[in-house]
Amino acid sequence: MKEYLLSIFEEAAKRLVYLRDLNLTFDVPKIESQGDLSSNVAMFLVKQLKKKPRDIATEIVSNLNVDKQIITKIEIAGPGFINFFFSPSFMSRIVNDILTEGENFGKSKKYSGKKANVEFVSANPTGPLTVGHGRNAVFGDTVSNLLEWIGYTVDREYYFNNAGRQMRVLGDSVRLRYLELLGQQVDFPEDHYQGEYIKDIAKSIYDEFGDIYINENAEGIFKEKAESEIFTDIKRTLERLNIKHKIFFNENSLYEEGKITNAINAFKEKNLSYEKDGAVWLKLTELGNDQDKVIVKSTGEPTYRLPDIAYHITKFDRGYDLMVDIFGSDHNATYPDVLAGLNALGYNSEKIKVLIHQFVTIMDNGVAVKMSTRKANYITIDQLIDEVGSDVVRYFFNMRNITTHMNFDLALAKKQSDENPVFYLQYANARISSILKMIENENLKSSVENIDLLTSIEEQQLLKKLYQFKNEILLSAEYFESHRICSYLEELAAAFHRFYTFCRIIGTEKKLAEARIALAMATKIVIKNGLSVLGVSAPERM
RNA sequence: GCGCCCGUAGCUCAAUUGGAUAGAGCAACAGCCUUCUAAGCUGUAGGUCAGUGGUUCGAAUCCACUCGGGCGUACCA
After folding, report:
1. Does any strand B atom come closer than 7 Å to the Cβ of A430?
2. Within its chain, how far is the Cα of A524 from the centroid?
3. Interatomic CA distance for residues A298 and A277, integer angstroms
4. Residue A459 CA to B5 C1' — how many Å?
5. Three-state DSSP class for A343?
6. CATH no. of A2-86
7. Which of residues 295-324 of A touch strand B (CB under 7 A)?
8. In chain A, where are the structural domains located?
9. How much is the ipTM here?
10. Do residues A54 and A82 make contact, with C-beta atoms less than 8 angstroms apart?
11. For residue range A474-492, what is the model confidence (pLDDT) as tens digits?
């Protein structure tokens, strides 16, 4: 539809100079009576032309050469909108496209040839993934899918740190539990990891090696074993959500390969750092930020900023056109320093897109659950998947804009999982599958031969929704907003359920019935494609 | 104190990134199954878009201030 409007506007621009070099957009009006597509170009030109918007609109419309077979009506409405009404037969053409393109319908090549890196989850291996990580994990993977759909080659990356204080405490937690197993009386400190999984790890060391590590320190086998077992668990949890990272990037490699030193030297050379009180400071005030920050502590140890900067340099070195970082809101203060540092070193930080998601408040019986891995006060993603299934988990974390402070009532999720919108979508898909099985016995097939018989309101509304899919994918990807796909699919499914209710197939005259089957098949493809972007399955039967 | 985010129907959230009469789901109420899956459909009711100013053809959306909530504000990550 848009392509056609663009072509007639281009033709009209030969006569109307002011239509040239405009970035024309067409919107789908909220209200049916306002047409299938609408342009606000006349209002947009008010200032430039110093005329009334409705007069401009009138002039534009009289210069449009429209094919009456395609557009049945053009209307100037409200303050100066130009509303276009498409013919039913033109609308039905989309079915051909969908059936031809199949599982590729909705993909575009707009960004093909470009490489993107999406870094997400990136939880250090100190414990199981909690629902707190769920939003990050699901959103990151869906953004990756979206970017792939518009042509990017995407590397999913997980950044982690297995050194430092956190990990020492983890190793020591395992060590103490191990000593307990050996019958020693130990005083387990409050700031150690309290979770049961620590005991399991200690037990597995005990089972395998007995008491030979009785005098081992925290950093040896205890830390190593903890890290490997926890990572195995994390990967298994992610796999249950259909998430697979291509790259696990260890922060430690930055030290081993001298990237940290390189970064320090680079700042020094550019005279962007100085020493004070035994520490090295970065001149962030000169780079437009509020205050200077320490990049190397007086102990000689870098702060997180330095490895973060060095890490992003490796991403630039790896040649990505787009780098997406997905963080929880607790990181919102850290990334401006990193971006400023990168810019100062000559890297274009506009290639980095930082997406901050707000936290999910978990409500249990009306009380907010405060999560802490260390205090073992958490609900894991695995528990959640066990309760409601991975489709619901994925859909749930995708369905809201990441800027919202989302509330998640556990009790409600368990009790009312039947009412989750994901079932509404899957149900539409299952109904179509059922029809497609049924028609074999009725001697009916799918046919686009008489597709222009699809003129009823329900059929036209469904067609209109199908038309929007490709654009919806593109916008969702460009805005990094996966929740739009959920909203779209719910509307599509609603349009289908109405079609299903009012437009029977079996018992209808053959030509119309076969056109309707084609429409149902096209709908099934779009629902399935949309769900696959979200990482949600489309079962044939429910 | 300062920075970022949020405040929309009883609840959970949308709103085409500044567009026309602010929409869905849940909950409530009234209907629809001897025909392709009732996990569905139709209808009713529900709103001071936190508040006050401003910007313009036009504001839930942008700006300023106020109120309320979340997250930060380290020589932790």
Report:
1. yes
2. 22
3. 7
4. 42
5. helix
6. 3.30.1360.70
7. 297-299, 301-304, 307
8. 2-86, 164-240, 420-534
9. 0.95
10. no
11. 999 999 999 999 999 999 9
